[in-house]
Every structure is written in structure tokens, then in C-alpha cells.
Amino acid sequence: MKSENSMSPLKKRKVTKSFGFENILKYLMYAMLAWFIVSFLVIPNINTLYTTFFIDGSFSLEAVQKLLSSERAMSSLKNSFILAVSLSVTVNIIGISLVLLTDYFDIKGSKILRLGYMTTLIYGGLILVSGYKFIYGGNGFITNFLVDIFPNMNQDWFVGYWAVLFVMTFACTSNHLIFLSNAIKKLDFQTIEAAKNMGASTFLILRRVVLPTLLPSIFAVTILIFITGLGATSAPLIVGGESFQTITPMILTFSKSIGSRDLAAMLSIFLGMATVILLVCMNHFEKKGNYMSVSKVKTTIVKQKINNKFVNVLAHIYAYALFLIYVVPVVLIILFSFTDAKSIATGTLSFSSFTLNNYISLITNESAYKPFIVSILYSLLASIGVIIITVSACRIIHKVKNKWSDILEYSLLLPWLLPSTLIAIGLITTFDKPQWFIGGNILVGTLVVLLLAYIIVKIPYTLRMIKAAFFSIDDTLEDASKNLGASSLYTFFRILLPIILPSVLSVFALNFNSLLTDYDLSVFLYHPLYQPLGVFIKNLTDANTVADNTTMTFVYAVIVMIISSITLYLVYGRDVKKTKKG
Amino acid sequence: SSNKADSSSKKLVIYSNSTADGRGDWLKEKAAEAGFKIEIVEGGGGDIENRLVSEKNNPIADVVFGPNTMQFEKFKENDLLEPFVPSWASEVSEGLNDVDGYYHSIVKQAILLIYNSDLYNEETAPKDWTDLWTNKEFKNKYQVEASLNGGTTRVVLAGILSRYKDANGELGISKEGWKAVEEFYKNGVVRIDGEDFYANLVSGKTPMGQMWSSGIASREEQHSVKAGLVNPEVGVPYVVEQIGIIKGSKNVETAKEFVEWFGTSEIQGEWAKEFDSMPANEKAMEKASEQSKYINENYKAQDIDWTFVAENMDAWAQKIELEYIK
Amino acid sequence: MIKLDNIEVKFGDFLALSDINLEIKEGEFFTFLGPSGCGKTTTLRTIVGFIQPTDGKVYANEVDITNTPVEKRNIGLVFQSYALFPTLNVYENIAFGLKVNKMPKNEIDEKVRAIAQKVDLSEEQLMKKVSELSGGQQQRIAIARALVMQPEILCLDEPLSNLDAKLRVQLRNELKELQQKFGITTIYVTHDQEEALTLSDRIAVFNKGVIEQIGTPREIYNESKTEFVCNFIGDINKIDEESIKKINAQTDYNLDENKQSYIRLERIGINEQLPGIKYAKLKAEVVSFEYYGLYIKYYLKVGNIILKSIEKEFGQTTYQVGEIVEICLNPMDIMQY
Amino acid sequence: MIKLDNIEVKFGDFLALSDINLEIKEGEFFTFLGPSGCGKTTTLRTIVGFIQPTDGKVYANEVDITNTPVEKRNIGLVFQSYALFPTLNVYENIAFGLKVNKMPKNEIDEKVRAIAQKVDLSEEQLMKKVSELSGGQQQRIAIARALVMQPEILCLDEPLSNLDAKLRVQLRNELKELQQKFGITTIYVTHDQEEALTLSDRIAVFNKGVIEQIGTPREIYNESKTEFVCNFIGDINKIDEESIKKINAQTDYNLDENKQSYIRLERIGINEQLPGIKYAKLKAEVVSFEYYGLYIKYYLKVGNIILKSIEKEFGQTTYQVGEIVEICLNPMDIMQY
Ligand SMILES: Nc1ncnc2c1ncn2[C@@H]1O[C@H](COP(=O)(O)OP(=O)(O)OP(=O)(O)O)[C@@H](O)[C@H]1O
Ligand SMILES: Nc1ncnc2c1ncn2[C@@H]1O[C@H](COP(=O)(O)OP(=O)(O)OP(=O)(O)O)[C@@H](O)[C@H]1O
Ligand SMILES: [Mg+2]
Ligand SMILES: [Mg+2]
Predict the structure, then answer these.
(1) Do the Cβ atoms of C193 and D293 come within 8 Å?
(2) Which of C190, C173, C183, C171 is nearest to C33 (CA)?
């Protein structure tokens, strides 16, 4: 250009942050992550394992022996595996059919159906199982109804393996509904038309074209189901009966008794190894198959009509039957929260027993709010914390593809290998004394330790979900931003984060909702003066209380559902509106 | 509520497994009148134990009351307690307080086998725990607990197992003893999480089971049922609920004042009257209910070597969990 | 072979197609040409059976197939993006339709291998994942998948539009060869004029849901029936009134001065003496040119308008910018609307 | 302006670029042309700064910028896929770089609106999401986003390759106009020969990581230095030994009979009398032709080979299939390797 320029390099740009500062930040982030992982993921868990196998400093396999010779332990362990495997099948069957009914087939009223199927997102664990028991159990609604028809039937029919399987099958479809639906929406619709053009029937298309493309998503949710199945607690405890107890309640019991913690750890290791094997297998299958669509232009899916009239009617019946299974417990919990203990015990509804007293006593009892506030704050902070940690980790895993990023990824998956009670114990035994790596502080007995625990247990799930979002970002965006002079940090916050935000928010909501009523972890770690909701509700139903608090548990359940629904609405509802407007 | 407590009132955190059925609220109110602003942390005996142990280096609690002698022995062993001898220590029945002054007794509790008296009478009801499994009529008629972390459950086991003490047996118990426990669990019905024993007792699903004596009256009222109490020849296990001060508490002085106040015959008497308990303080016993007095007088204490039990209980519990519970 | 009789298609209130009448003969290579959104795909999908026309009838071999479901019409379809099944390998993709029809395994195998050979897919490639093959090979799989069903008609919806220039030309030729080899009636959808001109036996030009003209490439190009077709089918010059007057003055041809007048680039000669017919000659100034290798495109100022003309390139720019030249044109080549 | 000095780039063991030397002058429209995978993008990314060459230096205005980070080089880049930020609207996309530079709000606003006007984006469109705009509009956003930074150099990596033919030609013209309007030095990457020929001041032809030839479009097309360039830059005829012998016999030009010989399509005349130079004349039979509208491509059998030639189309096929014609060619137009 002009002569004065010809001897100078290209005009230097102002750059947002000085290069040095960026680098310092980057290394600071690396250091923080490394510190967090080592301090809270590695050391406590290693500590647990060490104390398990090195009694008084020498290696011992006594725990293994004890367990191997215990019929109960072995059968519980076996049951856990049976449950995990059978759930992997049944949840997939139900979950996939749910998604097909709401997103693939043309079913009347699919929007309402979807809402019904989504009820599992707003309540879970103890509350959900109690809800089911309330319907199918001894004095349950359905049972009473059936007994009227078949007076000879066994009132306690709803126990054991089938009951557990039934409850958990319907309880665990949330991930299908969220992640598989997304996958279906990304399907290349032209492949379906192509198959049709070649004469394939609706179900052949489903089997040969649609489902194979969904396999990666199905694999991913199957891992989650399997892990859930292995760790099942509430359902076997409540409806498993004597014939079908699983291992996690036993781990819970053992870990509560200091002298038996080695057994708890040992049992957890069995489960952990199974999880590892599963993860490895799934990764292998995922790599082997090819599921990337080759189309450059995708057309969005058009809902498929079921042409066969008979099948169509069947599908509608099936859809609405499922809808009832999902919705009835929720409706009844809500209805019965307005009644008295007697109505609940006998499972009868009448106008005369309708009362607002439960809610009034909740509102007027100031100590009743506190657990809500405590749990909401904890869940909020933990969900934010876990997002910050996993997003920064994913950023590194995505950008730096080497041995270290692999180590980072796998160490963040560690909490999947141990049940939450063991993680809690690891934290207790590590942080009940001053530790130099956390500045000589004691964490047990502080408010921090439960927050840490919440964050830790949610990391693996969050990582898996957010990593997927990261890897779907177009690499050139980052280049483009850099080329326009933006620093890495600026690029991250201004460009990348907004793109993954929808995924981040949905994981955030799911984490928040599930932490809200957590019991297993909380019971070990909560600060006695700040009792979280899960512990509070559990204490309400405790056998040692004389007062009948069942009505109050219903009330709490309803309020938890309301909070969860609000969270979901904030994340999804608003999203839907926005896209509609746009 | 604690409105009466003025701002100068002294704050305390109290751990207890004995605050159910309105005891906690009552205590809060009374304490407030006496100038203490107390926070009560409830939990099962096992939970309290775990908490105290894990918080050893950073204690939150100032006072603990409710756990039994066995558990307090463990606290003492773990160096969790601050020794303090209140003035009312001498009013407590002989042999219940800790000789070293680390903890002192407040309430005695008989652990009983009870039954629904609408369904059984003294004739048809079991005469002792052992009848439960030796008499086929009681098969699946009594309730057992699957989790052995609870204090009451452990005492019941202690009552059964100490009858079979055998220095050469496994964990100090003879073969016969283990067989008895096995039968005990085999013939019983495990309580399902979330179910209420009394509700099952009333409905007849499991009309028998273990109960702590001071809980009976309030439940009889609630469920309008009269419970029959089994009175075995060997006697019934009595557990003693103790009180102690946590070592490292930031409010040791207040804690001492509280213990001093709580154990007096006046408060214990009121407590006994209100909640049908059997006070360890002999002076307070006068105020106890008729039934408590009746039990106190007619149900003799089973002879149990508590030291032996305390030493072995964890191992027993583990063995039972692994081998006998279905 | 295929006859569309007064087809009308509505999407809700939107009239996507109206008054579509056409007949495609056996063995013909028939092209639907038109700008984006004009209804080409909709017409094709009506023939294939994905769309039920709101009015009118579809005939195949004089049989009314308007209500026959997709699966029962024997019409092959190759999608714009090929729509290959990503989870099946090449062989399975091609065999898919035969398997659906429950053909015996060995027969399927025979047919698949035969067709694969014809479209030049090697044994080795048959066992590969579709994503491992190049765009051109993918196209051949898509065509093989349609052809193996031995359809009476093969429909292709812009099969080349995703490819880059070089590959597009290459595949276009392959496609033509395949069509000739199999002698199959082909309906081809495109918005690429060059493609339509070089490939087709006949072309239907679509615009806003109606057919503007049906004819051979030459008819469409040289005797465009409407202004739209004239503009759409290729580069063109618009001639103003003033020039028309001059042309009318020089020849005994009587062009209407009030109509829109167009002439194709190649019909304008520069400094040329063409034998026979009477030409109009106009003075022009070369204002710029574009180099295309094969030819040069000159921009020529005539009065107030710029006319474009092409000249075969012989290694040197024949005319310089600023040079005054004489252009000649045959008034018969002028299209008026 | 930009100088690459002996650039070498390795990815692991793979030598992606070697021996790259070139100089781009101020205001020039410089094109990298080459087949897929030849290293065009790699070269561009080396200039922009995303890739550090393993050897060699990059100079800008004679200053070594080899180690200057991307953010600090003032080189605009338009990506093949545009890489528009999907979560920002059009305005925010364009303003992005200015905001990064902490320019005052009102100044940003002024600049964004000015550039938007120049690239023909309306006020209304500025507030839209990028996904709501068409491919062509998206390209203009991408260009505006780069231009608003007032880069000294604008790099474009196959910006048109995702578009369909019609739009590609239209945008190609827009692009050229913009470049001339801003007078900005432009580096353009493409594998489309026509694009390279019509747009560029100079072209560098890449092949397998090396530059085969640098020159003006005419030089590249008519004086291809290597067989690869000759083949790659456009359609071409290969002439066999026998014909070369005939040509040598007819003219006093002495072509090497043992070399590979090529001649471009437009350099072959049919039944033509060209003035001046001495031509070789060969008998040929018309075997087929293709209709392109603008011209007709004839396939002519000469001895054992088929030669292609184009003729401007005047409304009637000048030569019929089977007709025997005489083709003439200038031996000087034959390229030998
Ligand atoms: N399912 C539908 N619902 C509503 N409108 C539709 C639908 N399908 C197509 N259209 C509309 O019908 C018109 C014709 O669409 P069609 O797909 O046939 O165009 P086309 O000629 O194939 O265009 P292109 O070259 O872009 O593929 C368009 O305006 C389109 O928006
Ligand atoms: N990051 C990388 N790691 C390894 N190899 C690479 C990398 N980037 C490019 N290559 C290889 O370097 C060669 C040149 O790639 P480049 O992207 O420059 O090609 P190109 O000329 O732009 O091709 P296209 O027209 O397909 O974009 C290719 O063989 C490519 O596979
Ligand atoms: Mg179309
Ligand atoms: Mg490239």
C-alpha cells in the first residue's frame, strides 16, 4: 500500500488480552483441574480401597472370603446383575417405543403423551417407587380394584423381581426421552423414503433403517441404564420383597457400620469392574459401526402414518396405556396429598376426606421450609460447579488430543466405578483430618463436603453428555474467531459456549432435579444443622416416629415435583418458545 | 417454639436418637425456658455414631444423649467425650453411670417383645423370644429388621445371643446360638423400608415384634390397639440411654450447664411423665407413669455381659447380615 | 409410459402445482428444469407416489396409478443426497430392495453383483461402508440400488447438485452412458441449464408450479416460448428499442419495437461475414472481455446497451478493449415477448 | 506484499507442502488452483497463521511473520463453510472482530452499516439469524465480516464450492466486483478451473504439495508448463503419434513424435480457412456431438483417435453425424511433454 507501510509488517492488531495473561490463565486452569481430580476424585477413592485391602498395613483378602461364603451377598449381587441386564432390555424396549410414539409415528395427541412420559423427569427415587407401591402394592389402588374382581387373588402380588423390573423400567426412560428424541430428529428422512420407494414396510424400515442409525444413542443410554440397574436402591428395598434384594442396599448398610466398610468397598469393586467392562465393550461397538450419515442435505423427519388400521389402533392403545402407567402415580400422589393418613393407608378417595390441612401445616411450620432452601441451594451450586468443571475439561479433551487428555477423561469417569455411598465414605475418611493439599483444612463437618460430593457424583454423566455437544461444534468457527483477533478465552465464551448451551442447560436441569432429593450421599455428609430434603423426607417416614407422616411425604413429593417442573420449564419450555418465535 | 429464649440465651447443638414422637420439640421448649437455645440433630443410633466418629476432628455437636451404654463405651474408647460429673449423678441407680465420669444415665428402656392383644392373649402369645422360631404357629407372624444398625435391634440380638455364650464358639457364641439366630430370621418377616411396624401389628400382617418400652403408650393411643408385653423368664434386656459432652465442643461450659439441667429429677420426672419413660434418676421415677413403674417392677433385667456384647456386636451384626438375613 | 393429466398439488393453502400435463415416452431421457421452489421435486414425488395430487391423475402405461401406494409402483428413485443407508455396507444397500421383496439369497447375490459390475463398482468396494466411498461412487451405489429393482422408470432428483464442477461433468457423462446402456426411461430433475441441455431428449421447464414449455433442448433454447424460459435456459442479451429500429431499417424483417427482445450470445457475430441470409450490422465498441479458456466473452457497447458475444479463442485476444467492431445478427434469431 | 520462501509443511511424517515459493503483489487477485488434497488449504492456512511451516519463511511487506500468532496478523479469511457464528445475528457476526478490538460502540455501528451496505445486506437482514439467510447472503456476511477489519489481504478458501451452479456464477461475479471495489489483495483457493480462469490475475497450480506453475490465466491455459497443468486446467485432446507424423509432414514445423502431445478443443477448426499461418489439415468423421446452447461440442474421429472440437452454434447443427470433414490445426498450438 502506501510507502510508509511497505517496510512495516502487517498492521498489528490490538488483541483483547495480552498473550501472557491468556497463557497464565490456561495453565492455571490445567493446574486447578489436576488439583481437583487428584484431591477429590483420586485420593479419597484410593484411600477407601487402601483401607479395605490393607488392614493394619498388610494386604488382606478377608473381605472377599466373607462375601464369597455369604449366600445373601452372592444372591444380591446376582440379582443386581440380573436387574441391570434385564433393565437394559426392558427400558430400551419401553424407551424406544416412547420415542417412536412421540417423535416418529403419527399418533394422535402425541404432545400430551410426551408430557405424560416426561413425568419421570420431575420425580424419582424413593418418591417414585412409593407412588408405584401406592398403586400396585398391598392396599394399592389397582390392587383393590383387582381384588374386587378376583377376590381370591394375593393382595401382595406386587413384590419381587417383576415388580422391581416394572417400576424401574418405567422410571428409567428419561434419558431416552431426551437424548434419543434428539437423535431421531437428526435422522436423514430421505433414507426412510428411499426404503419406502423400494417397497419396504413401515416396520421393516424401522428395523433396518431407523433403529440401526440410532444405535450410538441407544448404546449411550444403555450404559446409563446398566449403571442405574446395578445401583438400584429404592425399588428393590420397597417392592423387592425377600426374593429380590440387590446389592446396593447391602452396601449401604455395610458402609454405615464402620466395622463392615471393607465389605462395602469390596462389593462396590465388583460393580465397578462390571461398569468398566461395559464401558469398554460399548466403546468397542461404537467404534466398529459406522453411523455417520453420508447425506449432505438432510431433510427433517415427517411423522409416519401407520397404514395398517389394526396396527394403528393397537399403537394408539399402547401409547395411551403407557401414558396411564406414567401419569396415574403422579395424579394420585397429587390427589392424596390433599387427604388424610387413613385415606392413604386404605387407598380410598372421597370428597369428605379432602383437606388443605397438610399444606397449611407445611406453610405454618417454619422448619419445614429449611430443607427446601438447603437442597435448592446445594443442587444449584453443585449443578453449576459440575458444569464448570466438565465444560473446562471437555474443552481440554476436545482441543488437546493426547495421552494427558485421555487420562483427564478417564479420571473424570472414576466416580462411575463406585457407588455414591462409597464415594461419601472416601471423602469422610480422607477429609476428617487436616490435609495439606486442601490447605490443612478439615472438610467433614463443614458445608463444603456435601457440595463436593454432589459435584463429584454428577461429573461422569455430565462429561459424557457435554463432550458429545463439544465434538459436534464446527472446528472452523474457532479458527474464524481467532482470525478476527479474538483470544481463546473470548472465543470460548462468546462463540463456543453459546453453541453448547442448550445441551449444558438440559444436563444442568437433570442434575439439579436428581440432586434435589438425594439421600444416599447426603445422609453421610450433610451438615447436621442444614438437613437436605432427601434426608428430611426419609426421616419423616422413619420407623421410629409415632406420628403418621405419610401425608407429609405426599405433600413434599408434590412440592418437589413443582420445583422440578419449574426447572424443566425454564430450560426447555423457554427454548421451545424461542424457536417458535424465530 | 423458642420465642421465649432471649438473645442472650446460650446456643447448643445436641445429637440424639431419642427425640422422636415430640420429645425434641418438648425439649426445645423447656430448654428455651431455662435459657438454652438448642438445635437438635436427629438420627438413628448408628447414624449418630458414624457422625460423631467422622466429625472427631471438627466437632459440631456439643452434647449427645440417647445412645445406649454400648455405644457410649465406643465413644469413650474413641476419645470423643469430655468428662463431666453432674451433681445429679449420685441420684442415678447404682451401676448405670460411667465410673470414669464420661457419661451419665438418663433413661432406662426395656426392649420388649410385644404382640397385638386383639389377636393373642397371654395364653396363646409366645412366652419368650425363643418361642418365635421353635413354635411353628408364630412362623411369619413376627417382624424382624434387615438393617442391624439400629440400637434396639442390636439389643434384641444381644438378648438372644448372650444366652449362648461359648468361649470356643464362633465369635464367642455357640453353634446352637447361631442356629437360633438363623431360625429367628428364617421364621420372621423382614420389615420393608417405609413400612410402619405398628401398622403391621394392627393389620395383623406381623402382629409381633420388638419394641422399646417408652414408645408403647403413645403408639397405643395413635393406633388404638393394646399391646401385650412378653415377660420371659430370663428377663428382658434393659438399655440405658446416656448423656455426655463432646470433646472439642466450643461451648463446653454451656454444655455442662445443660447436662446439669437436663438430668435433674425435676426435668427427668416431667420427661418421664410426658413420654412414658423410665428415668434412671431414682428420684424422678416417682413421676413416671403407672405402666413404666409396672414394667420397672415386674420385668426383671436380663443378665447380659455388656462388655462382652460391646466387643463383639459389630462382628455379630456383620455375620448375621451376610449369612442369616434373607 | 407416464402421463400426468391435469395434476394439481396443494400444501394447505399453497398451490404448489397446477395444470401439469405431460407425457413421457418409453426410453426417453426427460428433464424437469426450473429454478428453486418451482415444483420440480413435487412433480417427481407425485409420480413416485409420495404425494397424492389434490386433483388430476397419474397414468403409467395407460393405467391409473394415482392411488397406488409408493411401495407398489415400480418406479426407481435416486435422491438428491442419495439417501444411502449409513449403517449398511455397499452390498447391503444395493440388496435392500430385493431383500424386502423376499428374493432368494443366491438370486439377490447374482443380481447385486451383476448391477455392481455394470456401474463399475468393484467386488472390494461392495464390502465397504458407504461413507468410505467418494461422491461419485456413492452416486453409482444410489443408481445401482434403484436399477437393481428393474424399475420401468428411473427418477433422479438433482443427483449432481452436491458435487463440484469437475466431478459433476464426469458423472453427468457416466449417467448418460448408463441410461443409454440400460435404455431405461429416465426422469431427471435439475436446475442446471447446461446439464439439462446436454443430457435430455426432452425438457419441461417449470416456473412457479406450472410448466412453461416442453420441448427438445434446441427448441427450448432457440425457440423459447416465454420470456421466463428464454431468460432461464441460458445467458442472453436484451436488445433495446433503438437497436430494434436500426435492425428493422437494415433488413426487410419487421420486428415489433414495443416487445421485449432477446438474442443469444452465440448468435451475435463480430466482424463476421456470414453467407446466405440478410444480416443487420451494428457498430459496437469492445468494453471488456472475460477469459474462459474455451472461448472469450466480449462485452460490446451498442448505443446505450451492452451486448455479450462469445468468440472461440485462438490464442490471442482477437479484439482489444476500445476497438470499434461491427456486429452482425440475424433478425430471425431475435426472440420477442 | 506476501512472500512465501521455501515453505515446507509436514503433518507427522506426511509431507503436505514442499518447496513453496511465491510472491503475491499488492492489489492482485491471486488464485491457488489444484485438485483435492494437493495442499491449497494448507498453504493458505500457513499464510493466515494457523499452521507453522516446518521450514521456510512467510514475509508480509518484507517483514518475517512466520512466528506471529494468528490473532496478530491482519489477514482476513473467508472459510469454505463461511464459519458464521450461529448464535450471533448477522450484525453481531460482522461486528465481532471490531468488538474484540474494543472499538467504541458507535464507531463499530458506523463501520458495520457501511460495509453491510457495500455488500448489499439490508438493515432488516442485519438483525436476522444467519441461518435464516440464503447461501449467497451468507457468503456476503462472511466477506463483510472479513472486510470490516480492513485487512490488507483477504483470503478465501473455496467460498463457492458449496453452492449450486447458477448461484456460483452469480456470486463469482459479485466477488470480483467487490474485490475491484475495495482494491484489496486477494488470495483465492479453488479447484474449479473456470473460476480460476475468469477471476484471477495470476494462478498458482498446485499438485501433490508442490507448485507446478505460476502465471496468468492465459499462460497457464495456453502454455501449460507440465502435463499435469495442461490436463487439469481444462478439457483437452490427446494426439497420437500417427497424427503428429501427418502434421509434421504437412508443415515445416518439427514436432517430437515420441512426446505426449495435446491440443485444446478450441484450437481445432472444422472446415475452416484460417488466414496467415500454415495449418495442418486432417480428414475426420463426425461421430457425435453434444448440445451446450452456447456452442456444440463435436466428437471427431481422426485415424484411431477421437478429437473434440467446439463450434459456435448458429441455430442449426453445422455438421451431421457421419459427415466427413476436414479439421485444421496450427502445430504451434500443440503442447508437448
Ligand atoms: N411439504 C410441504 N409443505 C408445504 N410446502 C411445501 C412442501 N413441499 C414443498 N413445498 C413448497 O412447494 C414449492 C415447490 O417445492 P419443490 O420442492 O417441488 O421445489 P423444487 O422445484 O424441487 O425446488 P428445489 O430446486 O429447491 O429443490 C416450494 O415453494 C416449497 O416451499
Ligand atoms: N491436520 C492434518 N494432519 C494430517 N494431514 C493433513 C492435515 N491437514 C491436511 N492434511 C493432509 O494434507 C494434504 C493437503 O491438504 P489440504 O487441506 O491442504 O488440501 P486441499 O488442497 O485444500 O484439498 P481440498 O480441495 O480437498 O480442500 C491432504 O493430503 C490432507 O490429507
Ligand atoms: Mg427439489
Ligand atoms: Mg481445502
Answers:
(1) yes
(2) C190
Q: Which regions of chain C carry the CATH code 2.40.50.140? A: 237-336
Which 3 state secondary structure label does DSSP give A506?
A: helix
Could you confirm whether domain D2-232 is CATH 3.40.50.300?
yes
* ipTM passes above 0.85: no
Who's near D178: CB < 8 A, 6+ residues apart? D118, D119, D143, D147
Closest CA to B302 of B242, B246, B239, B256: B239
DSSP C81: T
Mean pLDDT (chain D) is 88
**Cα-to-centroid distance, A163 and ligand 3 (Å):** 53
Ligand 3 geometric centre to CA of C186 (Å): 16
In chain C, the largest separation of any two C-alpha atoms, in whole Å, equals 76
Question: What one-character-per-residue DSSP string does C104-137 give?
Answer: -HHHHHHHHHHHHHHTT--HHHHTSBGGGS-HHH
pTM for this prediction: 0.82
3-state secondary structure chain D: CEEEEEEEEEECCEEEEEEEEEEECCCCEEEEECCCCCCHHHHHHHHHCCCCCCEEEEEECCEECCCCCHHHCCEEEECCCCCCCCCCEHHHHHHHHHHHCCCCHHHHHHHHHHHHHHCCCCHHHHCCEHHHCCHHHHHHHHHHHHHCCCCCEEEEECCCCCCCHHHHHHHHHHHHHHHHHHCCEEEEEECCHHHHHHHCCEEEEEECCEEEEEECHHHHHHCCCCHHHHHHCCCEEEECHHHHHHHHHHCCCCCCCCCCEEEEHHHEEECCCCCCCCCEEEEEEEEEEEECCCEEEEEEEECCEEEEEEEECCCCCCCCCCCEEEEEECHHHCEEC
Residue of D nearest to C222 (CA): D315
Where b means 16+ CB within 10 Å and e means fewer, A481-503 reads bbbbbbbbebbbebbbeebbeeb
Dihedral sign, Cα of residue C137, residue C139, residue C145, residue C150: negative
| Contacting partners of chain A (3+ CB pairs under 8 A) | B, C, D
Per-run averaged pLDDT (10 residues), chain A, 582 residues: 42 52 84 92 86 73 84 90 94 94 91 91 82 82 84 84 93 87 81 84 87 84 88 86 86 81 84 84 66 53 84 94 92 87 74 83 80 94 95 88 85 86 87 87 89 95 85 82 84 89 88 89 87 84 62 86 90 57 36
User: How far apart are alpha carbons D101 and A487 in whole angstroms?
Assistant: 10
Phi and psi at residue A253, to the nearest 5°: -60, -50
Which residues touch D272 (CB under 8 Å, ≥6 apart)?
Answer: D328
B129: amino acid identity, one letter: W
Q: Is B208 within 8 Å of B225 (Cβ atoms)? A: no
Residue A87: its pLDDT value, please?
95
Q: Provide CATH 3.40.50.300 ranges for chain D.
A: 2-232
- As a whole number of Å, the end-to-end CA separation of chain D is 34
Show which of residues 278-307 on chain A sit within 8 Å of chain C, judged by CB atoms. Answer: 289-298, 307
pLDDT at C183: 87
Are the beta carbons of A296 and C162 separated by less than 8 Å?
yes
Task: Concatenate the DSSP letters of all residues of B20-33 into one string.
Answer: TTTHHHHHHHHHHH
CATH code for residues D237-336: 2.40.50.140
Nearest to A568 by CA among A2, A45, A149, A114: A114
First-residue to last-residue Cα distance in chain C:
34
Mean pLDDT over C42-52 rounds to 91
Which residue on chain C is closest to D293 by alpha carbon? C221
Separation of C133 CA from ligand 1 center, angstroms?
30
Atom of ligand 2 nearest to the CA of D80: 27
β-pair partners for C153 = C75, C185
